[in-house]
Sequence to fold (720 residues):
Amino acid sequence: MARTIKIDPVSRIEGHAYITLNLNDAGKVEDAQFHLTQFRGFEKFCEGRPFPEMPALTARTCGICPVSHLVASSKACDHLLSVTIPPTGVKLRRLMNLAQIVQSHALSFFHMSSADLLLGMDSAPQQRNLIGLLSVDPQLAKDGIRLRQIGQTIIEWLGGKKIHPGWMVPGGVNEPLTDERRLAMLAMLPEGLEIAHRTIDLFKQLVSRFDEEIEHFGNFPTMFLSLVTPSGGLEHYDGLLRIKNAAGEIVEDMVPPTEYQRLIGEAVEPYSYMKFPYYLPAGYPTGIYRVGPLARLNNCDFCGTPAADTELDAFRALQHGKPVSSSFHFHFARLVEMIFALERMQQLLEDPTILATRVRARARGNANEGIGVAEAPRGTLIHHYKIDDDGLLTWANLIIATGHNNLAMNLGVKQVAAHFVDGNHLREGMLNRVEAVIRCYDPCLSCASHAVGQMPLKIQLIDARGVVVDELVRD
Amino acid sequence: MSRVQPPGPHKIRVVTLQIDGRDIGAREDETILEVARENDIPIPTLCYLEGLSTWGACRLCVVEIEGTTRPQSACSTCVAEGMKVITNSERLERYRRTILELLFAERNHVCSVCVSNGHCELQQLATACKMDHVRFKYRNAPYQVDPSHDLFRVDHNRCVLCTRCLRVCDEIEGAHTWDVMGRGVECLLITDLKQPWGESQSCTSCGKCVQVCPTGALTKKGTAAGEMEKHGSFLVYLTEMRGNR
Fold:
């Protein structure tokens, strides 16, 4: 008898979603879908607003990664201004973006996922969270909180607020950095690096316990999309688009972000409010690709900082130099990126020009169309605006990082469910694995992160006539 | 404050009154608000602005006067001998909060992304009057942004119809570019005969209206969220230098 399992909500992710698993008569998973249930409508209600408001307005999309929206939106507005941003303005924006990478990756790894890794996928849900982690490995929990705090503090010192700072504006930033703040930031970074190294060492020890998960957690061939520097290095703020295929061959390279529409199409499915971007020349859904830390490390030729490059070698070794295909290793890539971000911040802060006071170029709208692309913690983020001659928005398109991974997340859920879920003998740990594969992608579905603790979870087995044949409740 | 004196040899008398239990002496031609401010007694205001004529529209400055049942606006009520005024009471707080809630519900005041965020008088009043939520249903009516002026823009979403812009343009600049059309909830600020601001023949682009606007309705172009700070102190100097002319 065909049945459906619904995992609602998916816990320890940012935002609200549920998963449905469709079982066949034998109780095996035949299909799986990841549903985003919220509708935000930002693209529509931005219309009619003056473009200089866009960075702060679109940053409200999210409370976890508002800085990413500030960056992409400010860059789209720079394009509208058609001016060159003062170099220090760019460096300061980079600095904030890297701090955001650190805090967001720390949130994903420590707060959301480390409990699965340290306590095990089958551990009791009551324990399987940050609070549970505090009792088992207080140092790791404290490390996570501290690392996130370092990122958030740098954001606050630059922009005045931890969440939704209004400091990044079209043309640059609206206030330079003081030497006092620069030194205070620099003083925090060694501790951050120490934590990041300690954590990646721990991850390497833990990873051998998860061979089965690595094999089945969204482990399939896809392309990878990310920005790279003009010389092929790891990039989060600027750069050019690169797409690699599963074999590691470069499919598209050094594509100016303004030409993203040549590469990316967007499809819609009736079961989700999230769009399904795909590689346009390959068509839908064949043009599946992944973005984010895994894609960035697979795509770049080097990181560009010493410790991160050493870890990149270890990452490359996972699949003998080929692109790493298991989505489980988003975690690994995230840890490498944290090291990179901390090292890069150190370099930026040690550069005396970071204190220059010319940090903003002023102009009016000099173009009617602007595109801004940056790497958010979760992947490539695209803001695209059109304005009228008076500077009011007439059209907006936002391709959110999480959206790029939508096809892959759906496929990942299906793969994990097909391997781990036995519809005849439902166990909570099976379903946790289905959620855990989603956590690998660290999707940011809205601006809300769930509270610490277990989320209410109700799974029902419903037969073809709608009769509940089995039920599992976690409340 | 400039004030047109009544003709003839009329002498201004000094009266004594009580505000919040304090005995105070004041000129009989002063308003309760003026006397309260001279004596550092705070009364919230929105449409009132020193240097401009009194409008009395927002009613945030309402006070209780012993012997009257209805609260009176402090900005437009003159003091009188023996008057006993209370500037703060549970009822006044409730009225003020309600007025603010109605203002927030009427148009689209989205503080978090507004250019005046952190520098807005409406926002400050909401905090000062302990308005923590709006009990009325938001109208969510669509209002336009007019960006046609070369330097400034008007965002009707943020307008509270205080008419400070109208008064400063008429009384100080002498241009009378701004006016109000419509009635009730349909009221709308207009430039000239409802032309786009950028096409106004009378506007001198002096920017006084922008500086006296209490919210993010009138702003400089190119400002991002929270960047619009108003500097209205010029008004007192201008009116003082001008005397009664």
